[in-house]
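F.,

This is the one I mentioned.
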């Protein structure tokens, strides 16, 4: 689905907010938590929806998202919103997810049921990985997590995963994000073209880049989420 002017990055409807991200991205976990919290605080649940799109870091970087880099972010990014759920990986190294493509595909597949099913699965997968240390690359873990949401038909999701019907969406979204059209994970887009990359957070790396050094948060302004949700609500109201 494309937005105004056929732009594949934009929402198809004014009451929808597109979120490009990867599941194995601490900044995206932070952003998604804040989006849900802001929507709930503003009383916009059931009125605005999150359309999760794929920004698969492993395809952009042509390698796994290295655990040392991920671990270096947890205490820094996690300190901004401890209640989002964080902990360092506690399992054996061989159980650490090497790919996020299967759970990204599952989130797309759940859209066949509803955007609510998709966004609830996305949120549950993030919590399962970041807070519970579960290997969300595995089919059975994905289905178990989906069952726990109470919003996803797991039989339908299993059928979609088994025939790969949502795989094309993952690759189409990757293509839509390439060549600098989507800056990073996370990057949020509204129907009118308003967009913010890594909303409210400015960071730099010290003593080396991802996987070598560690991040330092230079600025953090959570109010940007109130602004984004309020703007989306205005766009939806104008279109009603």
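My design for it:
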């Amino acid at each position: 689905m494309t937005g105004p002017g056929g732009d594949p990055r934009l929402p198809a409807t004014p009451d929808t907010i597109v979120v490009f991200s990867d599941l194995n991205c601490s900044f995206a976990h932070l952003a998604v938590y804040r989006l849900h919290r802001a929507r709930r605080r503003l009383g916009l649940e059931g009125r605005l929806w999150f359309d999760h799109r794929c920004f698969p870091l492993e395809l952009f970087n042509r390698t796994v998202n290295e655990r040392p880099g991920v671990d270096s972010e947890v205490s820094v990014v996690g300190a901004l919103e401890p209640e989002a759920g964080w902990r360092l990986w506690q399992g054996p190294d061989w159980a650490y997810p090497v790919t996020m493509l299967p759970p990204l595909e599952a989130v797309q597949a759940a859209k066949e049921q509803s955007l609510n099913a998709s966004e609830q699965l996305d949120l549950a997968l993030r919590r399962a990985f970041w807070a519970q240390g579960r290997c969300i690359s595995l089919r059975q873990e994905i289905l178990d997590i989906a069952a726990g949401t109470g919003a996803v038909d797991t039989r339908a999701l299993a059928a979609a995963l088994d025939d790969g019907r949502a795989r094309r969406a993952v690759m189409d979204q990757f293509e839509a994000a390439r060549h600098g059209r989507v800056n990073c994970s996370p990057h949020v887009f509204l129907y009118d073209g308003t967009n913010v990359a890594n909303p409210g957070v400015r960071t730099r790396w010290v003593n080396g880049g991802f996987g070598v050094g560690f991040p330092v948060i230079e600025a953090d302004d959570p109010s940007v989420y109130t602004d984004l949700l309020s703007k989306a609500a205005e766009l939806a109201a104008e279109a009603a």
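Strands lie at 16-21, 49-54, 187-189, 195-197, 201-206, 214-220.

Talk soon.
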